[in-house]
Amino acid sequence: MSRRKKIVFLLHNAYAIGGTVRTTLNLAAALADHHDVEIASMARHLDEPRFAVDPRVTLVPLVDIRPYSTDLSDPAQARPAADFPAEDKRYRQYSRLTDVRVRAYLSRCGADVVIGTRPGINVYVSRFAPRRALRIGQEHLRHDAHTKQLRKVLARHYRTLDAVVTTTAADAAVYRARMKLPGVRVMSVPNIVPPAGVAPSDCTAPVIAAAGRLARGKRFDLLLEAFAKVAPKEPDWELRVYGGGKQKERLEALIEDLHLTDRAHLMGPHTPIEEEFARASIVVSASDAESFGMTLVEAMRCGVPVVSTDCPLGPAEIITDGTDGRLVPVDDPHALADAILDLTADPDLRRAMGRAALASAHRYDPAPIVTEYERLFTDLRATRLRRTWERESTRARAWLRRRVRAWKRATSAPLRGAGPSDTRLPGAGASNHKQPAA
User: Fold this and answer.
1) So what's the pLDDT on residue 3?
2) 366-382 and 19-31 helices cross at what angle (nearest 10)?
3) What is the CA radius of gyration of the chain?
4) What letter does residue 215 receive in the DSSP assignment?
5) Residue 359 and residue 368: Cα distance in Å, rounded?
6) What is the C-alpha separation between 198 and 362, in angstroms, rounded?
7) Is 91 helix (H, G, I), strand (E, B) or coil?
8) Is the peptide bond before 313 cis (omega within 30 degrees of 0)?
9) 6 burial class (0-12, 13-18, 19+ CB within 10 angstroms)?
10) Residue-level pLDDT at 388
11) Domains of the chain by range and CATH?
């Protein structure tokens, strides 16, 4: 094990509910076994975090936005952020006060390693993290989920990071192919998903579960369409969807339209979700895209087989089709329904897949993930001079190429104001010019 370090995470809001919050807290707790770990939360809107924070991890809120906070009357809080990129979709949640507080915090944090957890925050890390610290940008969203404008900003700032860490190998490959980052290590490390802390499901309850934000991309509408095909053939089974979001009313209306009011239920948010997954026999994800697929692993931790769309990028790296779950095409309610029916009709298959899922989920134990990060820290420190040379030499060559192209354009362009009279041979005078006497 390497020497004890101070590791700082920058997190959008450690007091909120979300996948990035949960995975950051999991990783911070695991690293706290051997390091001093601190989480700087850009904002604080509640008195206490919604998720439990390991007592060994120090939580530092930077801007307090609770209703009675004096930060709300600070003039800088009313001004737009200047350092946080406007191209990040959460730009309006940041202010000039956030910029100032982040910069001040990073200047005095004394970190050996600074880890950002979303694109705009990674820009903060790139610009303001201590020079002596290793600078790591985590990407919990897919490369292709970012707008073209944001990717352009990130390409410029990510060049000064030491590493970019994605949650899947497929996404790391996309970053390496589409975002040239000389001297920056681009690699994937999956999220930690700790053991569930509940008894595994026996896969006998006639319950199908799903969880996530009620957002368009999660395609709960597709899941309901698929369940409408399952329901007549499996009259004892019900569907429970856990989560909250803007699509709630639309999904409630769809449940009525599909005549599923007694069979499909929107259960609202539930934390920890493992308690509910352990009461189910199948967990389903119908998403169009996933950067990782946290709920899939959480279900597997409960010994429940999972059925998921084979969307980019996470599910195919989590599920072994036919062994611990099923993968089906994206946007195909018939294929999704057929995969669910295969499991509802075969209790032995459900139990076998559930056992395989529980065994497979050990890949996401804290120990192997922490080992990956420890190796990364050691490698980045050992190769820092070489990577800096690679970055600077690449920059110098690019500068030289630009200068050469500019010189060629300048020398190949015709002289300004040149005309036919400028092409006379040297010594040739005008027609009325008198020649000197012999």
Assistant:
1) 84
2) 80
3) 29
4) -
5) 15
6) 15
7) helix
8) yes
9) middle
10) 87
11) 6-192+367-389 (3.40.50.2000), 207-363 (3.40.50.2000)
Specify the pLDDT at position 9.
98
| Residue of 149, 288, 298, 276 whose CA lies nearest to 215 | 288
- The predicted structure's pLDDT at residue 61: 98
Contact between 327 and 319 under an 8 Å Cβ cutoff? The reply is yes
DSSP 145: G
End-to-end CA distance of the chain: 99
Nearest to 22 by CA among 207, 213, 172, 173: 213
Percent of the chain topping pLDDT 90: 84
Specify the amino acid at residue 203: C
Q: Specify the pTM.
A: 0.85
Q: How many CB atoms lie within 10 A of CB 208?
A: 27
Q: Give the separation between CA 338 and CA 257, rounded to whole angstroms.
A: 21
Q: What are the two backbone dihedrals, phi and then psi, of residue 68, each rounded to the nearest 5 degrees?
A: -100, 10
Beta strands at 163-166 and 58-64: parallel, antiparallel or unpaired: unpaired
Output DSSP code: residue 37.
E
Q: Residue 8's closest CA among 29, 50, 36? A: 36
Residue 232: exposure state from Cβ atoms within 10 A (0-12, 13-18, ≥19): exposed
Q: What does the DSSP assignment read for 359-390?
A: HHGGGG-HHHHHHHHHHHHHHHHHTHHHHHHH
If DSSP codes are grouped into helix, strand and coil, which group holds residue 307? strand
> 88 in helix, strand or coil?
coil
Q: Quote the CA–CA distance of 124 and 147 in Å, as a whole number.
A: 19
Name the 3-class secondary structure at 229.
helix
- In angstroms, the CA 393 to CA 410 distance is 26
- Model confidence pLDDT, tens digit, residues 137-178: 999 999 999 999 999 999 999 999 999 999 999 999 999 999
Question: Do 269 and 242 meet the contact criterion of CB atoms below 8 Å apart?
Answer: yes
Helix (H, G, I), strand (E, B) or coil at 58: strand
Q: Do the Cβ atoms of 309 and 287 come closer than 8 Å?
A: yes
Closest CA to 218 of 196, 250, 194: 250
- Flag residues of the chain having pLDDT under 70: 1-2, 413-438
Q: What is the pLDDT of residue 430?
A: 42
